[in-house]
Amino acid sequence: MFKLDTKNLFWNLVFILIIGSIVYFVYYSTKKVDYIWRWERIPAYIISKENVEIRAPFEGVLTFENKTIVLKSKDGSKTLRIDDYDDTNLTSNTDVYEGDLVAFKKSYKVGPLTVGLWNTLYISFVSILIAIVIGIVTGLCRISSNVALKKLAVTYVELIRGTPLLVQIFIFYFFIGTVFKLDRITSGIAALAIFAGAYIAEIVRAGIQSIPKGQMEASRSLGMNYFQAMRYVILPQAIKRTLPPMAGQFISLIKDSSLVSVISITDLTKAGREIVSSTFSPFEVWFVVAVMYLVLTSGLSFLVQILERRLAASD
């Protein structure tokens, strides 16, 4: 028989009460602010519908065959049939000249916020992939018995973690980008990847060192060399343990990608800033930008949770 868990019910009600209070406080605050809210402007900056003009490519006479527009040149040498249109202001047997407006076709156009969201997603995804490679290699060098590799890895990690990301972006764009002739996107991705790679390296190092040393000894006793033992025994276990901090680092990287706007990359943050400067609607725009970032980070967190469950089930 179903038994009601009164303890959990009470704390669920407490949670709902707290969230409801926060929502009411935000709503009450918006009423107290001397500001005219214009939410109706925002959808056009995400996706909008516009009329595409269809113009006559040559001079001729326009007629209709059912709903098809037929344009024939006066000498009969050219014929144009237009089926894909939504509206026209012309009537049958109308003389048109080259360049005249014949019809309209409605089409959807992505707005600057959508373009910025796509650029943020692209930059973050590529940066994460590169950062994972850098982090794994550097993490292995951190625990290597080779003194040169170990010290190089330590120097890289401490140098990157000890300087602000914004400064690193400027260095990559204005110095390294100039020397190697890198464009803005490449410079931004490189800066983000190297920055995140340093933190991932420490996560990988901690994950590997959390595996008992007996695992490596057992692998070597079975005839595996060091790299085989790392690939087939140590790293698979370490990756499972490092997924939660890795997910946190990936989420931070998505949010940190907003800094590439300082080098004129039209990411989500820069798109929002440009819209604010043209519409003078800062609250609406930044609320929407925040929600878009939240969707990206929540989606990544959800994917990592699925991966964690699958890896746990494979044990």
Automatic annotation (TrEMBL):
<dbReference type="InterPro" id="IPR035906">
    <property type="entry name" value="MetI-like_sf"/>
</dbReference>
<dbReference type="InterPro" id="IPR010065">
    <property type="entry name" value="AA_ABC_transptr_permease_3TM"/>
</dbReference>
<keyword id="KW-1003">Cell membrane</keyword>
<keyword id="KW-0029">Amino-acid transport</keyword>
<dbReference type="GO" id="GO:0022857">
    <property type="term" value="F:transmembrane transporter activity"/>
</dbReference>
<dbReference type="InterPro" id="IPR000515">
    <property type="entry name" value="MetI-like"/>
</dbReference>
<comment type="similarity">
    <text>Belongs to the binding-protein-dependent transport system permease family. HisMQ subfamily.</text>
</comment>
<feature type="transmembrane region" description="Helical">
    <location>
        <begin position="188"/>
        <end position="208"/>
    </location>
</feature>
<dbReference type="Pfam" id="PF00528">
    <property type="entry name" value="BPD_transp_1"/>
</dbReference>
<feature type="transmembrane region" description="Helical">
    <location>
        <begin position="9"/>
        <end position="28"/>
    </location>
</feature>
<dbReference type="GO" id="GO:0043190">
    <property type="term" value="C:ATP-binding cassette (ABC) transporter complex"/>
</dbReference>
<keyword id="KW-1133">Transmembrane helix</keyword>
<keyword id="KW-0472">Membrane</keyword>
<dbReference type="InterPro" id="IPR043429">
    <property type="entry name" value="ArtM/GltK/GlnP/TcyL/YhdX-like"/>
</dbReference>
<comment type="function">
    <text>Part of the binding-protein-dependent transport system for glutamine; probably responsible for the translocation of the substrate across the membrane.</text>
</comment>
<feature type="transmembrane region" description="Helical">
    <location>
        <begin position="153"/>
        <end position="176"/>
    </location>
</feature>
<feature type="transmembrane region" description="Helical">
    <location>
        <begin position="121"/>
        <end position="141"/>
    </location>
</feature>
<dbReference type="GO" id="GO:0006865">
    <property type="term" value="P:amino acid transport"/>
</dbReference>
<feature type="transmembrane region" description="Helical">
    <location>
        <begin position="285"/>
        <end position="307"/>
    </location>
</feature>
<keyword id="KW-0813">Transport</keyword>
<protein>
    <recommendedName>
        <fullName>Putative glutamine transport system permease protein GlnP</fullName>
    </recommendedName>
</protein>
<keyword id="KW-0812">Transmembrane</keyword>
<feature type="domain" description="ABC transmembrane type-1">
    <location>
        <begin position="117"/>
        <end position="304"/>
    </location>
</feature>
